[in-house]
Amino acid sequence: MFVSTRTLSRRWSLLALALLGSFPLLASGQNTLSQRIDQMIAASIPELAKKAAPPASDAEFLRRVTLDLTGTIPTTSETRAFLTDRSPGKRQRLIERLLASPEFARHQATLLDVMLMERRPDKHVPRAAWQEYLYQALAQNRPWDALARELLSTDGSDPKNRVAAKFFLEREAEPNLVTRDIARLFLGMNLQCAQCHDHPIVPDYKQDQYYGIYAFLTRVSLFSDPKSKTTMLAEKAEGEATFQSVFDKTKTTRTTGPRVPGRPLLKEPKLTKDAEYKVKPAKNVRPVPAFSRLALLGSEIARPDNVPFQRNFANRLWAQMMGRGLVHPLDMDHTDNPPAHPALLTMLAQEAVTQKFDIRHFLHDLALTQTYQRSSELPSGMQEPAPFLVAQLKPLLPEELAASLYQATGMTDIERTALGKKVAEATLHARVSAATAPLVNVFRSEAGTPEDFQPTLDQALQLTNGNLLRSWLNPRTGNLIDRLTKLKDAGALADEMYLSILTRYPTADERQDLANYLQKPGKDRVAACQDYAWALLTSAEFRFNH
Length: 546
What we know:
There is one protein chain. The protein is mostly helical. The chain has three domains: 2-104 and 305-392, no CATH class; 150-177 and 190-301, no CATH class; 398-545, Orthogonal Bundle (serine acetyltransferase, domain 1). Helix content is 48%, strand content 5%. It contains 25 helices and eight strands. The chain has helices spanning 33-44, 48-51, 58-70, 76-84, 90-100, 102-117, 127-139, 144-151, 166-169, 175-187, 207-217, 294-301, 307-322, 342-354, 359-367, 398-408, 411-419, 425-444, 457-464, 467-472, 480-485, 490-502, 508-518, 525-537, 540-543, and strands spanning 220-224, 231-235, 241-243, 254-256, 277-279, 288-289, 394-395, 544-545. The strands form four sheets. The chain has a two-stranded antiparallel ribbon with strand order 1-2. A two-stranded antiparallel ribbon has the order 3-4. Strands 5-6 form a two-stranded antiparallel sheet.
């Protein structure tokens, strides 16, 4: 494992892991959520101090939290400043600064995009408009339940909020596909196998649960408006969800109205035939029912008292920060697959309601925990630690990798300088995104989930033989190679390279190795810096968040 090659200096006692307050950043108040999380994990792990990794070094923590909250590595100057800062509470201040930044909203929008759309092609709603919609929602700190209600109830007919209908539109409003994905992504329940029968190996997942959600959608279809030339959702006033189990020899047909798992049937008004529609179906006319099941789907799914919705929110944000959910896989929350820490997930779900599904607040509390701030290095003699006693290695998303490579090579710094007084997050993001798009596209096309991460040949070739990364390593005023080649002292050069690329100082062995490489007979200094920097940029240490 790459981290074993580093000799990080730590003066922390392992015993401190079992004690609250061992990190200076923890709030002084008693029983904060961060403290309760650490207490509950400690209570469930006998001899925690012997089994858990020590706290992460400042360098490891800085890189990890900056990637997790903003989607890129810190700048060289930020790294130097943080590592030389000896004041108490600097980790908490860093967390709060990152969460307040526009870069957080941008990165969180990317994470939500990947989760909700799972990298589907953009057919009906442009990706840029969708990402801007998510960015604005997160910049305004809209609660997750409010955002979910809008995503799951918007039909796309109003141009002002048509973008929110992308979840349905890019799935072509196919009711089985939408049913499956709503259950998976909003409730943490993979009900796909319950489409034809009760789930064969998960007793908790029933066929009537699947069709309860399906009933919200069975009347919905796509409608192409001949005037605006846009696609939106249409809904009929009639049509019921009927189903048979393939295992039922009697072939009994059952019917269900709209119903969210664990909730009662939705009450529907009884309307006469003449009163069923606000706008009746006709050629090139979008029907509008007097009573819309779709309009109520979001409010039923995202109810504050909907326990699966609470648990899914907490579990997915936990996985985002910790690298693995308390329930794993994330969409298999059921009694035969209990959480790693059941009482903890229950408490976090309840806290989500107390915090009113505030994403920023929830991530803040997770980042403050000792659990999040543990090292990724295994304790001596430990082979397979219990979950969350060692920081999980997380492969960078394509967007994170591209932005971090651009930052490490100093190209983002050049963009900042070029913008001058006009530098703003949106403008800088647009420039970085345009420059890194080719690399992102190569990695995005074959991107799976972190759990099934496998590098591909195309990805390897892009980094080893592609012109893009090599071009970023060509000397340009202010970029990494330009800065390195101006340094005459080998030690200063090593510091600059490692701080810029790996967010840490080099070890003594690494300093000597780099010095030896630069002194090879006939080796051009610029080429030597380029080659060595390229080796670090394509290393496993750079490729993972650790």
